[in-house]
Design a protein that fits this description.
Number of strands: 20
CATH architecture of the largest domain: Alpha-Beta Complex
CATH superfamily of the largest domain: 2-enoyl-CoA Hydratase, Chain A, domain 1
Radius of gyration: 22 Å
CATH class of the largest domain: Alpha Beta
CATH topology of the largest domain: 2-enoyl-CoA Hydratase, Chain A, domain 1
Helix content: 25-40%
Distance between the termini: 32 Å
Number of domains: 2
Largest sheet: 6 strands, mixed
Length: about 375
């Protein structure tokens, strides 16, 4: 989960005591080493920019936190563009596995990745012949994306297939809808939230909910499957739509931060029967909402165990347009349950294969709302 982008003047988080000052690092030694490389190395020396960026990235690995990371300027610019909802690429949700691999979570319906035959769980070994192990997760995303009408070739490792498979996919431009909604049979409102990175996510969920309630909705299915999260403030306000006065989230860090986020009375969805759909692609802000609904006995969670990202990052834009994403705290569910590395376990577990002919998780949610069990 991310705080809103910051210029470094957001709420001050006092650091844990440290016996040294970063300003005292002997960068003369760094320059001495690279001067020797420049003079003596029998090979091509990278650009100064590449040396600098690699030094930052390498030093951050000493923190042991995969979520605190440096985002290079070109990647950061592309990510800021994507926040507007319009993307040029192949149309797939992706994630970095615990082993640092680039995994396809799910192709987006109707987009080139699905048409080409990519499947959930596919591991991208190379992009246009360049091994992904040589690049950061963000750099791989940048390489997969590109101008519409151009081709990209992905080398895929697929479970059960001995040899890697090449897929050549033509990029397109497509819009990522933050919210999709419809009325299901039996006056059941269905609302799917794709991301919390949209700063108007709460407003869009509220509009969808109001529209369906006006049409006579008597219960709600809130679909957070494959929602990778986004801004912390949006997770709190989205949860508030469905919760009465209650705790949404506990946030703590080693510097003594101990903060409680609460929901207020008086919102649209506080009394309507509720089911929340989750799966392994539901992460971060999605887990905040799911955990709050579950711990406050406000609704029933159906699906699969969530991803397990229980940390909060502040985003700082640096002078050259690059970004630092810094973990500032960990969050816990209202009952003080750990989310990071554990995830949220649904009340009713329904495992579903990607190629299932029917959405059995959705059907189970409908059944629960109709029968109460």
């Amino acid at each position: 989960t991310e705080e809103a982008p910051s210029d470094g003047e957001s709420e001050s988080i006092e650091p844990a005591p440290r016996l040294e000052d970063v300003e005292d690092i002997d960068f003369d030694l760094f320059l001495e080493a690279w001067t020797l490389i420049e003079e003596q190395f029998d090979g091509k020396v990278p650009s100064n920019e590449e040396i600098l960026f690699s030094a930052i990235e390498g030093s951050l690995e000493t923190l042991g936190d995969e979520n605190t990371r440096f985002v290079r300027p070109d990647v950061a610019a592309r990510m800021r563009e994507d926040a507007g909802g319009s993307v040029e690429g192949i149309g797939a949700f992706v994630r970095e596995t615990d082993d640092g691999l680039f995994e396809i979570v799910r192709p987006i319906a109707g987009q080139p990745a699905e048409a080409a035959g990519l499947l959930p769980g596919d591991i991208v070994l190379a992009v246009d012949g360049e091994l992904t192990e040589n690049y950061s997760f963000d750099e791989i995303i940048l390489r997969v994306r590109g101008p519409r009408g151009t081709d990209v070739t992905l080398t895929i490792l697929r479970e059960g297939v001995e040899e890697p498979i090449d897929f050549t996919i033509t990029r397109v431009r497509f819009e990522l809808a933050t919210v999709e909604f419809e009325m299901l049979e039996g006056n059941i409102a269905y609302i799917k939230l794709a991301t919390f990175l949209d700063p108007t996510a709460t407003e869009k969920v509220a509009e969808a909910l109001q529209t369906l309630l006006d049409q006579g909705a008597e219960s709600v299915i809130f679909d957070l499957r494959d929602d990778p999260g986004g801004f912390l403030n949006q997770s709190i306000s989205v949860a508030d739509l469905f919760l009465p006065d209650s705790v949404v989230l506990l946030e703590r860090n080693n510097a003594g931060l101990d903060r409680v986020f609460r929901a207020d009375d008086g919102d649209l969805g506080e009394e309507v029967p509720l089911v929340v759909l989750i799966n392994g692609g539901s992460a971060s802000a999605s887990e905040i909402v799911a955990g709050a609904i579950q711990d406050n006995d406000r609704g029933v969670l159906i699906g699969e165990v969530t991803f397990g990202k229980g940390s909060v990052q502040n985003i700082f834009e640096l002078s050259d347009g690059s970004e630092m994403r810094v973990t500032i705290a960990r969050f816990y569910s209202p009952d003080n349950n750990i989310i990071h590395g554990v995830g949220i376990t649904p009340d009713i577990i329904v495992e579903m294969a990607f190629d299932a002919e029917e959405d059995i998780q959705l059907l189970r949610a409908i059944e629960y709302l109709q029968t109460g069990e």
